[in-house]
Amino acid sequence: MIADAERAPLARPFFDRPVLDIAPDLLGRILVRDTPDGPIELRLTEVEAYAGPVDPGSHAYRGRTERNAVMFGPPGHTYVYFTYGMWHCLNLVCGPEGTPSGVLLRGGEITRGEDLARANRPTSRKGTDLAQGPARLATALAVDRSLNGSDVCDPYTGPAGEPAGSPFRVLTGTPPAADRVRSGPRTGVGGEGAVHPWRFWIDGDPTVSPYRAHTPRRRP
What we know:
Elements: H1 2-6, H2 12-15, H3 19-25, E1 30-35, E2 38-50, E3 78-83, E4 87-94, E5 101-112, H4 114-120, H5 134-140, E6 168-171, E7 181-184, E8 199-202
Antiparallel strand pairs: 1-2, 1-6, 2-5, 2-8, 3-4, 4-5, 7-8
């Protein structure tokens, strides 16, 4: 019975809340990524909140663009972006439609499909670093821009609880005790956005990535 409850999918109302309520509440939840070769499951251990128009660190701070358009849509969808010309990052859109907030998925523990994740990240040296950091997480789950806008709350009409079409879903999982949740500055965010303690993680979990302060780029 407990196991069944842990595998119940999170419905859209979970994501239709303020982003600073949702972000720490995602810790311990299970992200399922269905691939052509089978599912990969990840227990979320580290996330960052981005609060749209009031947050200088957010991609949506200066308004809607072709790149960030999905953030302005309904909650419970994925926002995937490409960064540094090398890496993809995976976010979950939160809040009411028209309010472009989201949660960056920064780290987690692969709990199912580790062989598939290792095939996606052959340079990984150990299980704890397979999805330790947002770029590694997205790579381990075979995430790219083609998955931007996927609905993680898709109806479940297939056999044995399989999703009707979305490659993602988020399961209830087991949230950590409140005294194990920590918060601090977001990694690599500079300017006014650097002051917000909107990075949340499970204390002591080996899959949490090291904190790195923002380093301004210098032009040659």
